[in-house]
Amino acid sequence: MTDEPTRRPAAPTIYDVAREAGVAPSTVSRTFARPGRVNADTAAHIREVAARLGYRANPLARALSTSRTKMLAVMVSDVTNPFYSELIRGAQIAASEADYTVLLADARESDQVERESLERVLPAVEGIVIGSSRMSDSTLRVIAKQKPMVVLNRDLMGVPSVVTDNPRGMRRAAEHLGELGHEAITYVAGPEASWADGMRWRALREAGHELALSTRRIGPFAPTTEGGAEAGAQMLDGPPTAVIAYNDLMAIGLLRFLVAHGVRVPEDVSLIGFDDIMAARLVTPPLTTVAAPVRAMGITAVRNLVALINGAHARAAEAFVLPTRLVVRGSTARRRR
Amino acid sequence: MTDEPTRRPAAPTIYDVAREAGVAPSTVSRTFARPGRVNADTAAHIREVAARLGYRANPLARALSTSRTKMLAVMVSDVTNPFYSELIRGAQIAASEADYTVLLADARESDQVERESLERVLPAVEGIVIGSSRMSDSTLRVIAKQKPMVVLNRDLMGVPSVVTDNPRGMRRAAEHLGELGHEAITYVAGPEASWADGMRWRALREAGHELALSTRRIGPFAPTTEGGAEAGAQMLDGPPTAVIAYNDLMAIGLLRFLVAHGVRVPEDVSLIGFDDIMAARLVTPPLTTVAAPVRAMGITAVRNLVALINGAHARAAEAFVLPTRLVVRGSTARRRR
DNA sequence: TTGAAAGCGCTAACAA
DNA sequence: TTGTTAGCGCTTTCAA
Predict the structure, then answer these.
(1) Residues B179, B286: one domain?
(2) d(CA B113, CA B107)
(3) Whose CA is closest to B166, among B139, B135, B182, B190?
(4) Given A293, B5, B277, B333, which is the most exposed site by the fewest CB atoms within 10 A?
(5) Do both B41 and B84 map to the same domain?
(6) CB atoms within 10 A of CB A19
(7) How many domains is chain B partitioned into structurally?
């Protein structure tokens, strides 16, 4: 089965083009790398020859001499999580704008895979966006020392970050529940180590304080539908009237669990998620949620990363805060009990 | 704002290690590239020094001299489509097994973006998996001539492919509906150019023929929830009792449209999708669907691609066919009218 | 088993 | 504006 590789024609190089066009190789190089530094006519001629020969600059060779690989890494904990696929989409958009290619590092929710993935990808890229990571702050900081880095929804002293406005989002969610007559809100916590989780719970506590709503917290749970179901199991006897979950996936898991066990949503329990993933719209009832501008986050992160690569100073003191928005759908209603 | 780049320590090279270890650079190279060709003790020493210095082989430099970049491209039409994210997951798994990195080429449902994406990525990779593409067969074949390629759910003469067993899946779906007493099945078609769509419709016709069920087809529609809703609008007056949609996204869009317009599922209409994406489980009622082993497809595709790269012969005559499975959930029921 | 030297395809001084 | 000449960091002959 395994034989000698099929012969494929070797890709033409700068030298082939140079010979064919009757100029020096460096002139060919210039034509593509710094047009303007070469006579318009010669350039045209060279391009013509190059096109005829099907010449494409070898990006690796270019990278070797310029040490600009034009590649970026985006690290996520799970590609199949819709939150991250939207993030990747944003990153791709901004990357191609800046003529960068993105390497996907998918941790597959495993520390070891995350390491290996990073190892593999890091030496090839000029910078990295940490969409999510289980690595410790100090580990990340070490990496940030080697390559430009932007982190998402995380607070890493000295490393620029892009975050969503959790406090405002949570505040709006709490207000919404307050307006519907709810007096107590239960927060279903996500992963313990999550910065966003801490932010959200804190924001809820503060909002509760100001709005005279009592708050409590259960968890932590996995940030998945399974985690949500687990939370549901814990609240089955004496469910609260209002719940805010760490994210949509959990809210959906919780929603389905409750409904399956005879608790009606929103009649018995009002439920709010975070992120506004596509599935939030699809469940019955559709989920009220605090929408995060995920794609915009990806775009912002990459734009900042590229700026960093190009020598911008890491204005790391303040994070880039992107606005959230409460999307009211069917899972919240006036309190009835 | 844009200033001189922050100084980052230059990564140690093979020369640094060589000097520090008191050996020739080529020996350091050998230690990593072909261990066994170097004395065990020297090798150990070199590794020790390398570790101490934090040496990491520069993959680009290596690629330049070996012309093995250890990178693969996966082209998809839309990263945010759950079908493709699962595919990417599979590709990642197989790629890391083989010590390859994957470059994601996301077409964002646009021809132009697809082109650019491909241009950007192609010269850097050793091979490419076409998860989906709007490119013509002939264009793809041209590319396959330059780089090893594996296509998914598509039939490209001369190019190895991985497909799901659409005929069997469709057959099972039709049988299921037949057993529930349905006598006519409407197929809601996906994108016109889609090979899978053609396969599915053909398979349904044949199954219908054998099972004495009448079949008809409407569409094409976009393979999205929006497309599904559009189809719903077309069938509002006099809806069929049984519908099979090109994929889950469409089925879900259709489902929600029908329910919103007073048509009950599954009481009035039984509905089946394809793929078994996560959302299929989340909608109400949960969707009966023909599950595709998406992750396995990604794995299979990449494994084959790697084999191809290593010189396996393209046994392109037969495609790799992966089994499908009918997952019966709540959207199908006995015919009542 | 090791070292010396050439070269992968490109860019970047430096001259001309 | 163009050509000449060194490399970029690694692998790979070829000798020793």
Answers:
(1) yes
(2) 5
(3) B190
(4) B5
(5) no
(6) 13
(7) 3
CATH code of B308's domain: 3.40.50.2300
pLDDT of B223 over the 80 cut:
yes
A71-122 residue pLDDT tens: 999 999 999 889 999 999 999 999 999 999 999 999 998 899 999 999 899 9
Residue B198 Cβ < 7 Å to strand C: no
Question: Which residue of A4, A63, A108 is in closest CB contact with B311?
Answer: A4
Per-residue pLDDT at B174 exceeds 90: yes
Q: Give tens-digit pLDDT for A244-259.
A: 999 999 999 999 999 9
CB contact under 8 A, A103 and B108: no
- Together in a domain, A173 and A283: yes
Q: Are residues A154 and A183 in the same domain?
A: no
CB contact A64 to B (< 8 Å): yes
Q: Kindly state the average pLDDT of the residues B299-307.
A: 96
pLDDT higher than threshold 50 for residue B5: no
Is 0.70 topped by the overall pTM? yes
CATH number of the CATH domain containing A18: 1.10.260.40
Out of A60, A96, A122, closest to residue B124 by CB: A60
Residue type, A247: N
One domain, residues A160 and A274: no
Residues A160 and A170 in one domain: no
Q: Which residue is nearest to nucleotide D7 (CA to C1')?
A: A65
Q: Which of B330, B317, B318 is nearest to B273 (CA)?
A: B330
Residue A71: phi and psi, rounded to 5, are -125, 145
Task: Report how far residue A144's alpha carbon sits from residue A152's, in angstroms, rounded to the nearest whole number.
Answer: 14
Residue A272 lies in domain: 166-292
CB B328 within 8 A of CB B176: yes
Chain B neighbors of A56, CB-CB under 8 A: 119, 122-123
| The residue type at B298 | G
pLDDT beyond 50 at B266: yes
For the beta sheet containing B127-130, the strands, ordered from the edge strand earlier in sequence to the opposite edge, are A320-322, A161-164, A149-152, A127-130, A71-76, A101-106, B101-106, B71-76, B127-130, B149-152, B161-164, B320-322
Tell if A11 CB is < 7 Å from nucleic strand D. no
Cβ contact (<8 Å) for A103 and B101?
Answer: yes
Take residue A41 and report the two structure tokens written for it. Answer: 């006519």
- Cα of A58 to nearest chain B Cα, Å: 6
Of B6, B41, B66, the domain-final residue = B66
Q: Alpha-carbon distance B250 to B256, whole Å? A: 10
In one-letter notation, the amino acid at residue B325 is R
Verify that A145 and A175 share a domain, yes or no.
no
Q: Which among A60, A120, A307 has the least Cβ separation from residue B101?
A: A120
Query: B-chain residues within 8 Å CB-CB of A117?
Result: 96
- Quick: pLDDT tens for B17-65: 999 999 999 999 999 999 889 999 999 999 999 999 999 999 999 999 9
Cα A59 → chain centroid? 26
If you measure CA to CA, which chain B residue comes closest to A77? B89
- Taking the C-alpha atoms of residue A48 and residue B337, their distance in angstroms, rounded to an integer, is 68
Banded pLDDT at B317 (limits 50, 70, 90): low
Angle formed by the axes of helices B111-121 and A82-97, nearest 10°: 80
Q: Calculate the alpha carbon distances from A122 to A115, A117, B93 in Å.
A: 10, 8, 18
Spanning CA of B97 to C1' of C4, the rounded length in angstroms is: 36
